[in-house]
Each structure stands twice: as C-alpha cells, then as structure tokens.
Amino acid sequence: MEDKYKVLLEQGKALQESGYRFITPTPESHKRVLERSAGQRAATSRDVFGWNRKFSPKDSQKLGISESVLQELRDQKFITHPNQQSGDDLLRSDIRYSSARPLNDTPDAKDLLFVHSGYPTVQEDSIFFGPDSYRYLNFLRDKVATLRENFSSVVDIGSGSGVGGLFFKDVSDEILLTDINDLSFQYQLVNTELNNVPKGKVFQLKSDIMKQIEQNKQFDLVVSNPPYMVDTSRETVRAYRNGGGDRGIELSLRIVRESIPYLRSGGILALYTGVPIVDGLDVFSEAILKELYDNKDLESVHYYEIDPDVFGEELSTEVYGDVDRIAVTGLVLVKK
C-alpha cells in the first residue's frame, strides 16, 4: 500500500471501533437525501463518511476524526475544502466507508467495511460501491457459497473495491483481485486490512479480464460484477460503469467466454450483471445461453433474474430508447 493511502486504513479502523455502520443507497436516493437537508452540517461520522455532508474542522473530534488524521486526510486530498472562495471553513470527504454483511451472516457476525469513492462518483477512475454490491453479495451467498464449503483459489474479475473476492476471505486459500483501474488496487489493500484478511492470501493483477493471467492457471471460483451500462451521462467514459457493446453487454459476454478455460474440474463461474430487456427478450441470454447449454465442458448452467427493473431513468436516453426495462441477473456455471 502506498503511504498516501495508509490514512484511509487508520480512519477506517477508528470507524470500526466506534461501531460505524452505513449502507450506501443509489445515487438518486443519495441526491434526494442531501437535497432535502440542503445546508445541513454533518453531526455524525455517518454524515461525514457516508453521506459526505460538509463539516467544520472544529467539530472533527466529535465526528470521529482525530486532529492528526484530519490533517493527513487533507494533505492527501481525501478531505477537501470545496468552497474556499466563499470564505467558509467547511470541509467535505471525497471518500466513503460502506458496511456489508459477511458471508457467514450470523447475528453476532461483524460487518465488513469497504472504502470507496465519495458521492457523486463522477471521476473516470471512481471506485464504485452501492446497491449493486449488496445484491451481488446476496447472490454469491445464496447461489454460490451453498455449492461447496471451501475454495482453494478465487479470482474476482474487475474487482473494484475488492468486495466480491474479499467476501470469500474465510472460505478460500488464495484470492486474486484483477482490474484495469490502478486506483482500485490501493483501495483493495486498505479493504483487505480493514477486514482482517490474513497476509499472503490476497494477490493483485492488472488484467483485462483474463489476458494477463497465466494460461495454465486454474481456479475453483471466478466471480465478477462488471459494468453493464452504457455510460451516456458524460463525455469522459467511466470505466466502472461502461459495459460496452450492445447496450452494455459486451464485457459480460467476454467474461463468460474467456473465464471458462480457467476453471478447473468442478470450478464455478458466478457472474452478476445487468441486461436490457427488449420486446420481452433478454438481450444477454439470447446472445449466450444456447452456446453455454451446448458446451460439453459444462456440468450445469443456471440463470436467475435477481431484480426485474433497475436504472429506470436510463430508459429516457437514446441508447436505451427501445428497452422495456433493465434487469439484474445472475449466471452460475459449473465445469465438468
């Protein structure tokens, strides 16, 4: 971990000790919550590191930020002074910490904690965490972790904050986190330590899906929650959001096709993705399912609709002009 990011670990541990918990909503919900309390200053650590409300540096200690950590967060530009020209002293966090339930979701189990980009996630290299992350983890818990008790090797493709791979920290021997976003690797290292993953268990690799992974490498489990939208909101495409191809499905198709050769016998591929539904037809399943059912190397293929309708606001854009709805789906393959 580069020195710059060590302060994120220190602040995260302080939040854990204080009992901090924050569930990240959709950007639209986040926007509306802030709008209805416009001008309200942060009163809790959740306000600072969850809602990203502004706060006075004079209040930092009661908000769970020590004086030395605040200075370091400011020095490293994780906390900024957005309205310097206005003459006020109000600061704002440009990072968030979000909670998630662990794989072993018993009443006494402690939350996982992940640091990621602040609201709004407008930068090209933003590290995303939100409702898709929660649906993704529930899918992995319900449809994948029930298939076997332990995985010797897990790879999380397009891992972002590391949430998918680190979710299996207690039932795996080795976790490989891949991405094309250099910033993600620093956040992953913070999240690895925040969640007490044993040293030597997590490895990182900059890779376009499987291209940079050794060809003879085999995994028990491949998981991925890739971008699945077409990023129409900005001139600069945000990698965490843009799935490419026909209404965002290209990356998901590539992950399925390129991952199967890397599964050992009995290995599992679990893909969580979003798909456009056009005239009642699932564009992603139409493109891939028959190919998978005909694949004699696969023991089983299961496809689930997890949420029938997300990102409804995108239907007003030109690229989704013929789409009925955008559904979230899960695909689970087992290799013979």
From TrEMBL:
GO terms for biological process: methylation. The keyword Transferase applies. The keyword Coiled coil does not apply. SUPFAM superfamilies: S-adenosyl-L-methionine-dependent methyltransferases. One of its GO terms (cellular component) is eRF1 methyltransferase complex. InterPro entries: DNA_methylase_N6_adenine_CS, Euk-Arch_PrmC-MTase, SAM-dependent_MTases_sf, Small_mtfrase_dom. It holds the Pfam family MTS. One of its GO terms (molecular function) is nucleic acid binding. Residues 146-233 form the Methyltransferase small domain. Gene3D superfamilies: Vaccinia Virus protein VP39 (3.40.50.150). Keywords: Methyltransferase, S-adenosyl-L-methionine, Transferase. Belongs to the eukaryotic/archaeal PrmC-related family. This is Release factor glutamine methyltransferase prmC.
